Amino acid sequence: MTERPVPVPSPSPACTLLHDGSCPLCAREVALYRRLASEGQVGFLDVSAEDGRPLPAGIDRRRAMARLHLVTADGRVETGARAMLTLWQQLPGFRRLARLLRIPPLPWLLEIGYRGFLVVRPQLQWLARGGIRPVARTPPPRSPTD
Fold first, then answer.
1. What's the half-sphere exposure (Cβ side, CA atoms, 13 Å) at 90?
2. Is 81 exposed, middle or buried (0-12, 13-18, 19+ CB in 10 A)?
3. Which helix (H) or strand (E) holds 120?
4. Superkingdom of the source (predicted)?
5. Are 64 and 58 within 8 A, CB to CB?
6. Could you give the 3-state DSSP secondary structure of residue 138?
7. What are the C-alpha distances in Å from 78 to residues 3, 40, 128?
8. In angstroms, how far is the first alpha carbon of the chain from the final one?
9. What are the CA-CA distances from residue 134 to residues 42, 109, 115 (Å)?
10. At 73, is the secondary structure helix, strand, or coil?
11. Which of 3, 45, 48, 139 has its CA 20 to 30 A from that of 26?
12. pTM attached to this predicted model
């Protein structure tokens, strides 16, 4: 009698990062996080991809595109600088920095810096794309038989 392999369920990640994959700055940052995270440690969900995957409960796609979101394994949702600090705690090379930046009033200052970044993010995206505006996604033209 031969034994059939039993599929081992993959552990759920400690956190899942919701990010704007259409943003060249965000894509570079997420690529770094992917390289640093060990297998299954951090989940990544591109909220710009319209592939039908639902977002976690209570998260609006428009808001998730505008501001970094992170969902912890216990379902807690964090945004902005707080989300970055929680993510960094999971990543080698960032853990000490995350611990340091959690000392008051540094989280508050980091959040102010993050909000400032959000103001100039569109201009930085434009520069990162080489001064080219992204092409808007439009549906294909309808044929007369539709």
1. 24
2. buried
3. helix 106-128
4. Bacteria
5. no
6. coil
7. 44, 20, 27
8. 58
9. 29, 32, 23
10. coil
11. 139
12. 0.79
